[in-house]
Amino acid sequence: MKNLLIRSITGILFVAVMVSGICLRGDAMILLFALITGLSLWEYTGLVNEVKDVTVNRFISTAAGIYLFLAIAGFCADMVPSSAFIPYLLTVIYLFISELYTGNKNAINDWAYTMLGQMYIALPLSSINVLAFQQSPEQGGVVYNWVLPMSVFVFLWLNDTGAYCTGSLLGRHKLFPRISPGKSWEGSIGGAVLVLIVSALVPYLSSFSVETEALTSRLSQVEWIGLGLIVVFFGTWGDLVESLFKRTLGIKDSGNILPGHGGMLDRFDSSLMAIPAAVVYLYTLAMLVE
């Protein structure tokens, strides 16, 4: 009972922070996800440094990931030029060259785990800025669109909730027993159905607010359903990828920063695949329209 209470309180606070951080202002979203990026990378580097013959520079890797996030945010918000990415590129070069002087046993392992952190965590989380900041010819510049990034997380949460409830009641057939024995096909289908229902209702729900309707009007109902499906599939794969990561390292949770919910990677595993997939999906729609 105590664990359930702790888990519930943590979950409520987590959702409150995420919703307020995304929905209030663009700068609040940037600060929130810069923090998430930093904490996730710090957690990741701590985990991989426990692997034999692996030594990743935690501070520089974490700082580089945060900088990449801020650079992409500034570029997408039209606040900084493309030259803002130069310091990040120099940092990546430094991380390669530094292995010449560290004397570590396996430089390839160090390089591989260092770059994995940037590609697996920093870049996917940074891509939320592509969803959040969009050109608006009507307003003559870039505007902050909180609906798209918020919808990705709402769909992920609904998918998890639907999968858990359906799987608990009807789960019989394992989805991926080698990686995640607790997931079932019935649960996955239940979560997907819930997301599809809500995604189909988004255009109607947004009509209650003039501001929200303007932010969502670029997508039709079918396109919203497509976005829901993308989030479901790639969110599930993201969850499985992180489960494989933990199994490879021989750990149960990635951390304990969120009582009852594990670590940052445990909480954001689905979004690491769902966010960039949503970006690709929306850009594909834009190219088809053109």
From the structure above, extract its key features.
single chain, 4 strands, 290 residues, two-stranded antiparallel sheet, mainly alpha, globular, 73% helix
Q: Got a strand count? A: 4
Strand order, sheet with most strands: 1-2
Give the distance, in angstroms, between the N- and C-terminal Cα atoms. Answer: 55 Å
What's the shape? globular
Report the β-strand fraction as a percent range. Answer: 5-15%
The amount of helix comes to over 70%
Task: Write up this protein.
This protein is mainly alpha-helical and 290 residues long. It is built from 13 helices and 4 strands. The strands form 2 sheets. The chain has a two-stranded antiparallel sheet with strand order 1-2. Strands 3-4 form a two-stranded antiparallel sheet.
Q: What is this structure's SSE topology?
A:
Layout lengths: L1 H22 L2 H23 L9 H19 L9 H12 L1 H4 L4 H20 L1 H5 E4 L4 E4 L2 H24 L3 E3 L3 E5 H22 L3 H7 L4 H29 L14 H5 L2 H19 L1
Antiparallel strand pairs: 1-2, 3-4
Helix pairs in contact: 1-2, 2-3, 2-6, 3-4, 3-6, 6-13, 8-9, 8-11, 8-13, 9-11, 11-13
Summed up:
The protein has 13 helices and 4 strands. Helix 8 runs antiparallel to helix 9, helix 8 crosses helix 13 and helix 9 runs antiparallel to helix 11. It starts with a helix and ends with a helix.
